[in-house]
């Protein structure tokens, strides 16, 4: 049997499976495999009469609820941004004050032309950049805590239903979340998406996710024009980016690269307290 005959036999088998079972071959094979495993476990395993639910199971009843899952995710995301700005405020003031003091001392002991270059140019320029480091640092810490605790995997599972409605699946959610940190590694993370069409659409919409480099710009405008609602304004900017990404993904998936989305299976890790090592890495 040559290669062409093998390919024809493969296509015929896929068509037969779709016609008989009404689903994709990957799903049919996975269902058969898990069905065999489930039957085998029933034959060889003995379970206690009353199966006790773990703490993770009880938490998942709320976190993975079809009605509460997405609103809870949005509340947690808003809390992350609120925490970021509230906690970083004193650090930003301290850094800004330190560079202001340094510029003042430099101006007092330097000639006029050198004073302007060093105080306003070098010290002022570096200070205006470093003053936003606490915001970015605390945002990364908060996202690392969510990942290390096991919640981000649940967030991907919760978003799977919404992803399917726009033609993607839950595996695309993780690269999109990584886009909050940096779009470059987020696009590299799309290599884990097996379906090439899902991977292409995820790459195309990823730049709409607001990366860490844009956070200082958002923070600058929020502090200048919306002092009393900085967290809410920045959260809204991120939410608008997410909404645009979902809309463009639906347009791309329905017009540019039409076709059925791949199926999503993932293992949910148990909840655990974040560790310093896990958050730092």
TrEMBL record:
Pfam families, alphabetized: FeoB_C, FeoB_Cyto, Gate
Single GO term (MF):
ferrous iron transmembrane transporter activity
- Signal peptide span: none
Nucleoside transporter/FeoB GTPase Gate domain location is 129-224
> Which positions, given as ranges, span the membrane?
70-92, 113-146, 166-188, 200-226, 232-252
Q: Which residues form the Ferrous iron transport protein B C-terminal domain?
A: 234-280
Per the record, its GO cellular-component terms are: plasma membrane
Print the keywords alphabetically: Membrane, Transmembrane, Transmembrane helix
Q: Where is the FeoB cytosolic helical domain?
A: 4-45
The cross-references to PANTHER family, in alphabetical order and at most eight, read: FE(2+) TRANSPORTER FEOB, FERROUS IRON TRANSPORT PROTEIN B
Q: What is this protein called?
A: Nucleoside transporter/FeoB GTPase Gate domain-containing protein
